[in-house]
Amino acid sequence: MYRFLLTRQWVILTLIGLVLIPVMIELGFWQLHRHENRVARNERIGKALDAPPVPAERLTSPGREVPDSAVYRRVTAKGTYDTEHEVVVRRRTNSDDEVGFHVLTPFVLDDGKVLLVNRGWIPADGPQTAFPKIPAPPRGEVTVTGRLMGDETSAASGIKDVRGLPDRQIMLISSGQQAHALGKQVLGGYVQQTSPRSDSPQLLGEPDHSGIGPHMAYAVQWWLFAAGVPAGWVVLVRRERKDRLAAAAAEAQAEPVEASPATA
């Protein structure tokens, strides 16, 4: 009755189903892990943003990476802006997806070390090869507050670190590169300025730490697909059996009835 399952077509179909089930289950768990990582990231960012600000030098130092636990922490620093060595970061967008620059200004601390401060976004109102006009920061000694960020990399950001750019333009924010350019000790990472407030450059908004994305829904979908494979296989088997029985019955009805011998 079910001998057709041994045919080449059904053996291949069954093997494909047996391969798809664990693959779909694994894809579901992959999306579940992405969901869990997103939730954990949101919690970490929220705690960092809610924590009281601390001096930047407590969380970072020259030549060292910013630890994950310190990223987005609010920090403060007292010093003076060094606009002479200010650079801009190319191809950055604002909240309206307009393309422009981020303004990266060295901030010289009281002990002579340098903290890189991202003062915000400005539009690209001219040729990309020209250094844009940048609103000046406050003069003299000031206290800066902002979110501590790790150095940018091509692997993490997807931005290629292009060389040979116009003077005072960069693609990625790297404390190591800026330390080499300045010839000074530069604290690892950089700070996204939140205070003093400024309309230009436009201060960068907080990172999104409320959305969880569609990963949980995708996980459920993959698991439903995995459950649907054996269910679909059963439906196809029953349909095939029904079609074969119907064909056999029709064939039996179509066979000619043998004539009975004539009587004398």
Concise description?
This protein is α/β, with parallel strands linked by helices.
Describe it for me?
The chain has 264 residues and is α/β, with parallel strands linked by helices. Among the domains are: 30 residues; 143 residues, no CATH class. The chain is built from 4 helices and 8 strands. It has a 5-stranded mixed barrel with strand order 2-4-5-8-6. β3 and β4 form a beta hairpin. α1 runs antiparallel to α4. The longest helix has 43 residues. The radius of gyration is 33 Å and the shape is elongated. The two termini are 45 Å apart. It is a multi-pass membrane protein. This is SURF1-like protein. Keywords: Cell membrane, Membrane, Transmembrane, Transmembrane helix. Belongs to the SURF1 family. It is found in: Cell membrane; Membrane.
* Secondary-structure element pattern, one letter each: HEEEEEEHEHEH
Main sheet properties: 5 strands, mixed, barrel
- Mean model confidence by pLDDT: 91
Strand content: 15-25%
Count the strands? 8
Helix content: 25-40%
Gyration radius, to the nearest Å? 33 Å
Going by helix content, strand content and strand pairing, the class is alpha/beta
Given the structure, what is the number of helices? 4
How do the strands of the widest beta sheet line up side by side? Answer: 2-4-5-8-6
Detail the topology: elements first, then pairings:
Blueprint lengths: L7 H43 L3 E2 L18 E8 L5 E7 L5 E11 L4 E10 L18 E8 L4 H4 L11 E2 L4 H8 L7 E6 L19 H40 L10
Parallel strand pairs: 1-2, 3-7, 5-8
Antiparallel strand pairs: 2-4, 2-6, 3-4, 4-5, 6-8
